[in-house]
Amino acid sequence: MNLWKIAVDAPLHQTFSYIGPADxxxxxxxxxxxxxxxxxxxxxxxxxxxxxxxxxxxxxxxxVDRPQLSPPLLEWAEWMSKYYHYPVGEILSLFFPxxxxxxxxxxxxxxxxxxxxxxxxxxxxxxxxxxxxxSHDFSSHLLWGVTGSGKTEVYIDLIRKLIDQNKNALVLVxxxxxxxxxxxxxxxxxxxxxxxxxxxxxxxERTDQWWSVAxxxxxVLIGARSALFCPIPNLGLIVIDEEHDGSYKQxxxxxxxxxxxxVMRAFYEKIPIVLGSATPSLETxxxxxxxxxxxxxxxxxxxxxxxxSVEIVDLTEEKTKKKEDASTLPxxxxxxxxxxxxxxxxxxxxxxxxxxxxxxxxxxxxDSCGYIYTCPNCDISxxxxxxSHLVCHYCDYSDSMSKQCPDCREGEPKPVGIGTERVEDxxxxxxxxxxxxxxxxDEVDSRESMESxxxxxxxxxxxxxxxxxxxxxxLDFPKLTLVGVVLAxxxxxxxxxxxAERAFQLLTQVSGRAGRHYQGQVIIxxxxxxxxxxxxxxxxxxxxFVTQELIHRKELFYPPYSKIACVRFSSLKxxxxxxxxxxxxxxxxxxxxxxxxxxxxxxxxxxxxxVRIRNRYRYHLLLxxxxxxxxxxxxxxxxxxxxxxxxxxxxxxxDPYTLM
Length: 660
Ligand code: ADP
Ligand code: ZN
Hints:
Blueprint: E1 2-8, E2 16-20, E3 29-34, E4 37-46, E5 61-62, H1 71-84, H2 88-93, H3 123-133, E6 139-145, H4 151-164, E7 168-172, H5 180-190, E8 194-197, H6 203-214, E9 220-223, E10 235-240, H7 258-269, E11 272-277, H8 282-289, E12 294-298, E13 309-314, H9 315-324, H10 335-346, E14 350-354, E15 363-366, E16 383-385, E17 389-391, E18 398-400, E19 413-416, H11 420-430, E20 436-439, H12 447-458, E21 464-467, E22 480-485, H13 489-492, H14 499-512, E23 521-526, H15 532-538, H16 542-555, E24 563-571, H17 574-595, E25 600-613, E26 616-625, H18 628-642, E27 649-654
Parallel strand pairs: 6-11, 6-12, 7-9, 7-10, 8-9, 10-11, 13-23, 14-21, 14-22, 20-21, 22-23
Antiparallel strand pairs: 1-2, 1-4, 3-4, 3-5, 15-19, 16-17, 17-18, 24-26, 24-27, 25-26
Helix pairs in contact: 1-7, 3-4, 14-15, 17-18
Adenosine-5'-diphosphate binds at residues 119-122, 125, 145, 147-153, 302-303.
């Protein structure tokens, strides 16, 4: 018998030691008595420090429903636990499927058979593909190329070569981009070797897909961020498509960034990783500039099409003009965009209008006293849906709008601002014969409805689509030649240090939807036509944008020039939450003095921009440091101090994506 260190699936940071058979190996899952229940855990290694005072408990049995984890995966899990300050046992539980494996029947394939398609890489693509497979060890690569430049064909080529060497591959894409289109394309090129994991699968489907990869039957796993944890035998390559995308960051519980964690998985597995993007994140760009990542560039679109022309319409000017010629167009629609829509529709092409707000109106305001309908749980304004339905987009609280202001009882509540529903309604009036569809979370809420939308677009059963960022990503429709951004200002005016970067990426991505097969046109409406994110995006100037934005970040000591972590406090009571955040900040500041940590700063505590969500008050502290070591010591102190705190929830967010 031996003493083994076990990472128990529980919210505790340490491992626990148990007696077990001497022939166990690290990476085996076991059942163990834990407190009053039987729990599952993973053997991390043997415990050489047997304490004779302790009466160790024994392992009950090995868990045969879970495959063995390899040593690199265990090391990687330990790295994540240290880096994100999250319990290793809980991280390891993500490595396994939700349900038990089903009997002996092979899992039902989700797909019908497809005929195969071959694409021969052009010389630029070929060179990149060869360069990436040069190394047989860890290496990270940035593949930078405009939408339509052929990045996906490079991934497919790499994977085909690996499959020939009997290796497997993992491809991560943002959840939203995980459309049937992408999966179909991989299957057409690679055959029936593809498994898929995303959030719209049932637990049974997830489990079956997971096993088909874990037992080596499927060679390629395409998935959203959580697919990163699937143990894949003979893993030879990881691809992160749209590496800049914010949805790689998990905002709840285990706050990891799947892109960053994937780079570390590749490091431990000793394999290459490819990060692909048309608009690389500043972090990745800087890593490439410093030579940590190899940069590969695809300069032009793969087919002969040139990039769409991008025009910016100044809405302030437009407003005056519309007054002068007594225009009857809706307030959100400029002459330019209207005429372009009309012409595109007449020519028999498809158009997309993009507005990053759901509903009919952003707020409902009393025209007499200025009363605004707000959510009683979240302190933010309610959004109007339909004619009178008011909804909170954070907690789903709902109310109905009355004819008379509930506050002054004199004025009348009026919708202000704009959302997808309002745009759709107006379009129906302007183009009565056009087939108009809306794509947002209210309208398209399942995989089936997304598939149905994609099908209708492909068969040209839709002339104009109105959507949120759901239509910004990953979709490819030959006849979509006009893209209009209804109000770019929504993206530009978010109080967050990444707002400019996100706006640039979003606008560039939306533009990329247009004219992938025919010449395309993009019209961006805004009140801030001088905003650098807009101008750089108009000129498809990624390098220009990144260069300028990096200077800002450096001046403000923000990533990628510093490491940041956010400590979030929330509580039902505002005063105690604030006081507690203050106490922690004092403790951190004196620790910094005492240890002579010269590379670190503490900012705050401040109320979070969304100060109350679901009745909880929110404060945060921002830790900034140019030293990884100092930052993590400070976070360890936070964890230590907050261990016993029950009334106030304390959460650590390393490399936060937003500070909202
Ligand atoms: P990205 O991933 O950069 O957006 P894609 O790989 O989707 O670009 O390529 C855009 C389009 O061009 C796709 O329809 C793709 O099949 C086609 N394509 C890419 N590379 C080639 C090639 N070498 N020969 C022919 N068509 C190509
Ligand atoms: Zn709410």
